[in-house]
Amino acid sequence: MSTSQSILSSSRLALKLFIVVLSLMIHGRVFAQHTQLSGDIPIARLIDTASSKLGVSVRYDPSSLRQSVTIRSADPMSDEELWRQLNDALRAIEYTTVAQETPGSYEVVQLRSAAGSAFIERTDSEHTKHPPAGYRAVLVSTSPLDPTAAVTLVQPLVSPTHGKAVALPGSGEVLIADLSTRVSVIETTLDRVKNAEGEIVIEPMRAPPGRAVEYTSVIKQLAERQRTAGGKPLRGDLIASADGASVTLVAPADEFPTWAALAERAWPTTLESRPYFVAEFDSQTLKSVFEEAITAMGPAGEGATFFANTFTGSVTVTARPETHERLSQLAQELRDLPTSARLATERLPVRRRLAATLAEQLTSLLTRDSGPATTLSASAAAGAAPQEQLANTTNGAFSTGPTITIDEATNSLLITGTPAQLASVKDLTVQLDTTVPQVMLEVLLVSLTESETLDLGVELERIEVGGSTIYRLS
Question: Is the CB of residue 126 less than 8 Å from the CB of residue 176?
């Protein structure tokens, strides 16, 4: 072939390639122009933009999609990112896209009715050549696995609210209906199970509270770094739970320990157990204070457990180091409180005993356990503040024991002291305020009078007969 013919042939080939590329560009298949979106964008406008850019048809009801979505993106989005943003925005308002029978045709429906509206695809259908709908219904082959066994295997990956996995016995297929991201994970899992040489495990792993997505990303990054450093590529996949509390690992059983080790290195969640003791607080009160503090910490305090030791008055807490740091600060704040700030007054009704008698017993018992206790009558305590009631009359300092005030009018006790002292008095009152055993005696009184005179009486009677008549004379 001559040089001129070779040049002509090359020119024709280049021209044909240019025409093909130009045609693809016109139809939006390659070199798609990126889209710049930012700010508050109506959902309807986002649908129209995405359908126009991707060359697909999306049917929706504008009257039911009046909401807007806020997008903050400094960089232009590709068509794939634009489609994903649309489906994320719809899912946030409980809507989604589902595929229709015609490939490239979609409909926006409510998420709760998506399973019944989605066209059932096959993994090799024409629908796979178009962007995946936000919600998909797919027939997946499970051969050589039994469909029922396959459903049992992937059930932990199915969304508990919107997804379903149904075995079709005799067909070697299962119907998977769920959000597109979950369907992809399930399809990948089934492929790996079918092609795996050994056992596949699906194991949930605890994630840092509310950080499951970040946790998953860090583990995958470590696995990738290990591979690029010359290590063996790990088989398996991770999926973050919808509530952000756990991560599900799907991997061959022999590689599960490696994944678990990476997870431990990715985000250590070592728990520590420490005892806490505050002198003026009983264990139950201290536990309640700690639990309220942990609740206020939100997700950062989740996973903590408490054990209240009533004998030592301490609380043992098992939690993360950052949680212990907060509890240590709180315990020190409680210790630094002035005595007057820790005082409280509570009324204890006495139902089966006299309040005065019970107060004497309590004073005697509490003096031996927690220092001198003070007993006041209602008249002596009238008008006195709790701090004044607790004052020791001998040295002017606060008493180490509680103050017990007797209210005879209501037969009750007013207890002023620290939370630990109040708890101690309550326990003793319950034990002492019991019915005193009684014996019922039945007595009969007889009165006898003895006189110095003796009265005697005689009655005389005579019977007379007169003729045929008999009469009595007395």
Answer: no
Q: To which H or E segment does residue 445 belong? A: none
List the one residue out of 68, 183, 101 whose CA is nearest residue 134. Answer: 183
pLDDT of residue 268: 62
Lowest-pLDDT range of 37-41, 223-227, 249-253, 436-440:
37-41
Task: For the chain, count helices (H), then strands (E).
Answer: 14, 21
- State the residue for tokens 């998420």: 111
CA distances to 335, 401, 402, 417 from 339, in Å: 10, 12, 12, 9
Of 325, 303, 224, 208, nearest to 264 (Cα)? 208
| 350 neighbors 413 (Cβ within 8 angstroms) | yes
- Which whole-number Å values give the CA distances from 472 to 127, 291, 351, 458, 459, in the listed order? 142, 109, 77, 17, 13
Phi and psi at 236, nearest 5°, equal 135, 175
Taking residue 381's Cβ as centre, other Cβ atoms within 10 Å add up to 21
10 Å CB burial of residue 269 (0-12, 13-18, 19+) is: middle
3-state secondary structure of 446: coil
Please give the pLDDT value at position 29. Answer: 41
pLDDT band at 299 (very low <50, low <70, confident <90, very high): low
Q: Read off the tokens for 434.
A: 């019991």
Q: Span 152-176, mean pLDDT?
A: 87
User: How close are the terminal C-alpha atoms of the chain, in Å?
Assistant: 187
